[in-house]
Amino acid sequence: MKVLAATLALAAAVAHVHVHADTGTLNTTAPGAVIRKEVYGQFVEHLGRGVYEGIWVGTDSPIPNTRGIRDDVVAALRRIKVPVVRWPGGCFADDYHWRHGVGPQRQPSINSSWSNAIEPNSFGTHEFMDFVEQIGAAPYVGVNMGSGSVEEGQAWMQYMTAPANTAPGAERARNGRTEPWALPYVGVGNESWGCGGHMYPEEYAHRYRQFQGYLKTYSGPKALKIATGPDTDDYEWTDTVMKLATRFRPNATSPILYAPTKPLLDGLSLHFYTLPSNRWGGVHPARGFGEAAWISTMKRALLMDELVSKHSAIMDTYDPKKEVALVVDEWGTWYDKEPGGPDGLWQQNTLRDALVAAVTLNIFHDHAERVRMANIAQMVNVLQAMILTDGPRMIVTPTYHVFDLYQVHQGARRLPLTLDAAPYRFGDMAVPGVSGTASVDSSGRTHVSLANLDARQARRVTLQVQGAKPGPLRGQLLTAPAIDSHNSFETPAVVAPRAFTDARWSGNTLTVELPARSVVTLALH
Ligand code: AHR
Q1: Is the pTM of this model over 0.85?
Q2: CA–CA separation, 104 vs 329, rounded Å?
Q3: Which atom belonging to ligand 1 lies closest to the Cα atom of 114?
Q4: Which ligand 1 atom is at minimum distance from the Cα of 383?
Q5: Is residue 18 predicted with pLDDT exceeding 70?
Q6: Which of 87, 195, 346 to mutate to test the pocket of ligand 1 (most atoms within 8 A of CB)?
Q7: Hey, what CATH class is 37-410 in?
Q8: Band of residue 16 on the pLDDT scale cut at 50, 70, 90
Q9: Which of 62, 71, 155, 228 has its CA 20 to 30 A from that of 325?
Q10: Helix ranges restricted to H, 162-198
Q11: CA distance 465 to 470
Q12: Ligand 1 near 95 CB (within 6 A)
């Protein structure tokens, strides 16, 4: 009898070890804010192999290309519907003089932001605009404030957007593009508190006020102007820039010439990188790490919620109507250089990165009212990339697959989802075991995405669903055998989505069996 009791206790313990039972609610009758598709934006910088090889191979390359832009990369990016691309940096933006990158005679220059690499300038304004048109995205161009001038920035805006019957437009036409480009987003400097000029926030705010007045479009829609925002938790920066740069100086505004109620900025950027620990330094390999690094990376990624909440609260005091967007235009994981791997912030991308992407996108959805654009760093071959290339070879990463699974949320309206998940613990660290999001699209289709952060244990999530008619369920699952599973050029599909069938209705209760370390997107129609 004692043996039987012990066996049962062990069986119960084993069952407990393998599946946590978590609960939650989903209300499909109360759609909230629109999840702007632009939060699925990406960032491309002239850094390492991000542009040269990653996107641009040149028209003479044996790698199949259209006007020098590689076809395999374009096809992969089109599949995940990239809405917007930020370019040319990063630190490089404040080092970039756009005239070097237009016209038939391109002279090399020095990329002093990144190891004094030779910048061939073969990929300039025309090539970038061609690239975003090929992938179906909108351009977000960062103007050089750090080493540039108002005049240079204004001339670039004219070059890109003035009609062809003006001098800047005629020059553009001579260089091959008659029609002005639509330029919906312009960034004013980059990390002006750091590589972009080491400014105090007061200084940046004053310079911003002057720059923004001249960074207009000369045809087509107005460009939304995005000011340099804070690094991580620099709340003083947010407060000062919002205070000094949001509005015209009182009594200095002509109501005839201006609409004094309109903010002088449309977006404030936020940069936040997920390091495996809470600070720079230490040893943080992109693969070959243990569970302590896994959970601490999750903890760091979850900090995005606190950062967005606190920066938004400061913005609310100056902009209660939320006219100014918080634009998280650099985010993602940042690990050590791979031993023997390429230079230029190249890193492998594992299942851990997929979880970071899912958790972060869920947070952006939660703050959809304020976070109206985000740009993961970076698109190809740099940091938390979607795509890795090696000469003619190309693979997509676990992060790419999350962006693929989450496409259904682009432009959809967020639905209230609550989760009561037991913490996932390792050592002295704990994080919520499950993170999730839900939305309804313009055709009335409801999607739920759930991420199991737990490296070892499966989770059974039981949701009480209000308003949905139980019907067929279709899902996609992303998981892999190990916490650092990744795709390589030799084995490109180790981490790849597959059909998910482990969800069921019982009345209005939806039960989802999440494997350990996984991301699931379910369609409830
Ligand atoms: O994304 C790499 C670099 O990180 C960017 O150039 C810079 O803005 C940030 O510090």
Answers
A1: yes
A2: 32
A3: 6
A4: 1
A5: no
A6: 195
A7: alpha beta
A8: very low
A9: 155
A10: 167-174
A11: 9
A12: no
